[in-house]
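Check my protein:
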Amino acid sequence: MPKQTDPATSGFPRGADLLNDPVLNKGTAFGEAERDALRLRGLLPPRVHSIEEQVTRVMENFRRKPTPLEQYINIMMLQVRNETLFYRVVMDHLEETMPIIYTPTVGEACERYGHIFSRPRGLFVTAEDRGYIADILRNWPRADVRIIVVTDGERILGLGDLGADGMGIPVGKLALYTACGGVHPDHCLPVTLDVGTENKALLEDPLYIGLRRRRLRGAEYSDFIDEFVNAVREVFPRALLQLEDFANHNAFRILHAYRDRVCIFDDDIQGTGAVALAGLYAAPRIAGGTIADQTVLFLGAGEAGIGIGDMIVAALREQGFSEDAARARCWFFDSRGLVARTRTDLVEHKRPYAHEHPPVTDFLEAVAELRPTAIVGVSGQPATFTRDVLEAMARVNPRPIVFALSNPTSKSECTAEQAYHWTEGRAVFASGSPFGTVIHGDKTFVPGQGNNAYIFPGVGLGVVVSGARLVTDEMFSEAAKALAERVTKHDLEVGRVYPPFSKIREVSAHIAAAVAEVAWKNDLATERRPQDVLGYIQSQMYQPNYRSYA
């Protein structure tokens, strides 16, 4: 049966309809024969341009925009006009465009989403759609969905409840699935579950795009999520479901409720855990020792922190530690102080990390008493790795490990410059959002970015290639190892514990191979294992090239 994308079929769009189809549109790159055959003559200027020339034009205009938000609007409008050109631009200029389509600029874009909204992307599934969610999913025009990124907008980055305006996150994440992981855009679906918002400013904003109601809670919310998950299984049975930016009280519960029967993972828990674990594998290559020698103090005990802690525990268990001994290497400090057994206010996900210790309500005091080799910021509270904290870390460690992972940049626990200057250039630093090169004395540092984009595109690609039925913790452990293995001697020499983003597709292919191997080993795969796994994966990665319609 001919595909719709075959120009010989009667259903293939022509003329203005073709130019308005972002999947098929080539703009001024349509050749002379195509313009005649597809009734484009006169609808385009006469000069035929190559895709390389189009990229030059796009980047020229992109760079003229006065602010990152204007750049975001500019490049995301390209995505809805010409999808192939969008991905070619992003892939050819990843280190320049990624901070715009993803963190940190996507945070500002979400805050302003209702005010910059022009054309819809993805699916909005609302609380008013209960009973009909499967029908809503069937409205999506692409049938072979393999990856769905979904949020309910309650905890967007470190910015809080942005309701339906959180759609910028699934859209941005899936752009990276394609650009960084090579997952074909036809297989990607961004979804926002609009169950209301507690953000008073949004409810009073006449340009807010979501429901004007308070959030669903309790059994109503659980039933809504259950209907959505079951609808995904019915309509898109081969899809991986990635949870994104759910609040702590829902994220852990949803993951645990479905992970053993649905192909699902939570990026804030497992993706963050894996990327931080990779950094902690690489950092001792600068600081000395191994991951088994680290004592880690977390500032923040939510999804990200506990996810990282669980990954560290799994890595130490693999090296022969008992469960208790592994957990004893991870300490947490939340908004009420050190997580200790004397506290009676701890929620369930924190209790396994509650150790015997007198109460401590000051983070600097916790550093002084615990003498950690590494501090990991996942608090969403800016400027909390103060000069006193960093100097204290430098007093007890020759090379203190400092990971300030909160996003966006405005929420980072410290800047790269502060980390290097306040430790006399001895910090091994990584951040969640990008920071530029730092010069301290005669040393130039290129700080690494502990960004989940190193992990989730490769994990998703590995799931798609293997047809994995479930996503397991072992997949993330292997993904972390694969990422750490791509850190070179040169990276370490400039202080970077992650590879440069220019190598992200190479990294993603290796991660995908590691993830797929776990699926095949554990009988979770529905696709046959090829003889050359890495070569096969690389051959399946999407390349943004125009096809000929002549």
In short: The mean pLDDT is 95. Residues 100-262 form a domain with the Rossmann fold fold (CATH 3.40.50.10380).
